[in-house]
Amino acid sequence: MHKMDLTGKVAIITGASSGIGAETAELFASFGASLTLVGRDEARLLKTVNKCVASNCLVPLWLKLDLTHPGSCETVVNKTVELYERIDILVNCAGKVMLSSPFGNSMEVFDELLNINVRVPHYLSQLSMPYLEKTKGSIINVVSSMPKRPIPGLMSYTASKAALQVFSTHVALAAAAKGVRVNCVCPGRTTNDAFRDVELDENIRSKLGQVMPNGKTMDPKEVAILICMTASYVFPNLTGAELPLDGASSWA
C-alpha cells in the first residue's frame, strides 16, 4: 500500500507565505519533501521556512518574488532545477482577490486577476512540464468553490478561478499520456485566506459568511492535507479531478 511519503521528491509551492500555501509547505516538509517556496511577503515567508526546517531539518529554497513580473516564473523553475536537479510536484497556490463589478472601469482589475490567478499557473506549468515528464510528477492548482456560487463584487475573481479550473482539465488530458497528473483542489472559505487583506462592504462580507452552510470557516491545514494526498502517489490514476473541500457550499 502506498504511503504519503515524499522523501526524495522536489516540490515548488507558490503562495507559501501564508494560508493554504504555508500549511501545505509545512506538511510537505513533514513528509520529507525538498521544497522551493515562493511568496511576496519576506517576513511571512521566512516563518514558513523556519517551520519547514523544524519539520524535517531540510532548508527550503525560498524566493521572494512577484510572479507577475517578467522573468520571475523562469527564476523559480531554473533555480529549483539548478539546486535539486528535478521537479516532482508543482502546487500553484498563489492568488489574489480584488473587488470588481460588471459595470464601470474594472478592466484593470480583471487583467490583474487573470495575470496572477491564471497566467502565472499556466506559465509555471508550461516551464515545469519537461521536468515533470521525467519524474512522472503532478500539478495541483488551488482553485475555489466560489465559481459555482457567484457573489456580487467578486466577478473577476470567480471568473479567473473558473478559468484556472478549465485550464487544469485541459492540461490533465494533454499530460496524461506523458504520465503527469493535473488536479484542482477547490476549497471553501478558510480562516486565513486572501479575503483577509481585502476591504469588503457589509453586504459582501455577509454573503461570504453564508458561503459555508455549517456557518464555519475551515482550517487551512485541512486543505493542505487534501493537496498532499493529491500530490502523493497514493492515487496514481487521480488526474483531471476537481476536488471540492467546502462543506457543501458549492450546492447551497
UniProtKB/TrEMBL annotation:
Keyword Oxidoreductase attached: yes
Keyword Oxidoreductase: yes
Keywords in alphabetical order: Oxidoreductase
Molecular function via GO: oxidoreductase activity
Highest taxon above the source species: Eukaryota
Pfam families named among the record's database cross-references: adh_short
Coiled coil: none
PANTHER family to which the protein is assigned, alphabetical: EG:BACR7A4.14 PROTEIN-RELATED, ZGC:101858
Family note: Belongs to the short-chain dehydrogenases/reductases (SDR) family.
Name of the molecule in the record: Uncharacterized protein LOC113505574
UniProt organism field: Trichoplusia ni (Cabbage looper)
Gene name for this UniProt entry: LOC113505574
